[in-house]
Design a protein that fits this description.
By secondary structure, this protein is α/β, with parallel strands linked by helices. Helix content is 36%, strand content 15%. The strands form four sheets. A seven-stranded mixed beta sheet has the order 1-9-8-5-4-2-3, sandwiched between helices. The protein has a four-stranded antiparallel beta sheet with strand order 12-14-16-15. It has a three-stranded antiparallel beta sheet with strand order 7-6-13, with no helix packed on it.
């Protein structure tokens, strides 16, 4: 058994220490100072977009995107039934109604055909979620949005660095939203980012997240704002992490390919599928296990893996089952429930060695009593 196999732990080292020390020595540790604008500038350059605005979390990014697009009471926003609840809560913050649709059974992402069916006269926006780093079918989603005059807010909180037909996720819709939580592709400890090519939106969001303060007039606030600013300490960490992003993405992709190679041809295990022309960031490598065939539930499999030192995470519960959202449940969400009952996130942290990932994959085969010679 390997010690210290990591599911999604952050990768922090000397570069991060260096930038944090610079920040501390500068005296700018809160929301004023040079590191925040520098991080926004570098992040925009990486994405190849015109504007990026840092915020306090991925949730705040989604909230600001919806707020800026004037999503309000009476409006509907289409979202997948399988995602982290932070995708949906900001819709309710704005007083709007989330409309849940089922996912594609192979990619686990929002199904464009289900989006079409869910559009009504009240629909204002779509939030596609690039689940676990896997890009959605953005061409079809944008076509549907354009045909129906809808906004697309990309939830790219899990997919920094993922590509869809040569374009980075978070740059294809009208606004992109990113998270830098401790377990994401890169981290600032917390934090998030809003990306857009629309100068008016970005400028106004920048204004709003600073309590809507008109600095030219001192402490004057012309509208209701939010305390969603990123700190310089967080931004300094983000700059260091951004400089290592390609290293992280290369490792995550290598681990994802290793899982695919080991599980190739195993009928009981299916790796989350990418669309043609898409490349996942592989934030969390994920598989669907035929639990009926193997005679075990996901919690039972997790327990056995834990005994072998392999940490895992269960797939998100369909949000329509949560008490605040049960009233929005319409339809059977068959694919969402199937993935929840049979899906599993496997170790993908860049702190792992190649051997850790190989061990985790073989441990799963062993638990499921699947005999196979694996030569890597």
């Amino acid at each position: 058994m390997f010690d210290n196999i990591h599911l999604d732990s952050p990768n922090l080292g000397e570069k991060e220490k260096e930038y944090l020390i610079k920040c501390i020595e500068s005296g700018y540790v809160s929301t004023a100072g040079p590191f925040v604008p520098e991080f926004e500038k570098r992040f925009a350059k990486f994405l190849n977009v015109n504007y990026c605005v840092s915020v306090q979390s991925g949730t705040a990014a989604l909230h600001m995107a919806l707020y800026e697009l004037d999503i309000k009471e009476g409006d509907e926003v289409i979202v997948p039934a399988i995602t982290f609840v932070a995708t949906v809560n900001p819709i309710v913050y704005c007083g709007a109604t989330p409309v849940f649709v089922d996912i594609d059974k192979e990619t686990w992402n929002i199904d464009p055909m289900e989006i079409k069916k869910a559009i009504s006269s009240r629909t204002r926006a779509i939030i596609p979620v690039h689940l676990y780093g896997n890009p959605c079918d953005m061409d079809k989603i944008m076509e549907i949005a354009n045909d129906n005059n809808l906004y697309v807010i990309e939830d790219a909180t899990e997919s920094l660095g993922a590509l869809y037909r040569g374009r980075l996720t978070g740059t294809i819709g009208h606004i992109g939203c990113f998270s830098f939580n401790g377990n994401k592709v890169i981290t600032t400890g917390g934090g998030g980012m809003v990306s857009s090519n629309n100068e008016e939106w970005a400028s106004h969001i920048k204004f709003l997240v600073n309590q809507a303060r008109d600095i030219a007039q001192g402490y004057y606030h012309s509208e209701i704002g939010f305390n969603y600013r990123m700190t310089n300490l967080e931004a300094s960490l983000g700059i260091a992490q951004l400089e290592r992003l390609q290293e992280f993405l290369k490792k995550k992709r290598m681990y994802f390919e290793l899982y695919k190679e080991i599980f190739n041809g195993i009928e009981e295990i299916t790796v989350q599928k990418e669309y043609e022309g898409a490349e996942s960031s592989a934030w969390l490598p994920s598989v669907k296990i035929d639990c009926k065939k193997v005679g075990m539930t996901i919690p039972q499999i997790q327990d056995e893996l834990k005994k072998r030192g392999v940490p895992t995470r269960r797939i998100f519960n369909p949000i329509v089952d949560f008490p605040p959202y049960k009233e929005y449940k319409k339809g059977n969400y068959f694919n969402s429930y199937e993935i929840f009952e049979n899906g599993l996130n496997l170790p993908g942290s860049t702190l792992n060695a190649f051997e850790n990932i190989e061990y985790a994959a073989k441990a799963l085969l062993n638990i499921l009593n699947i005999k196979r010679e694996v030569n890597i």
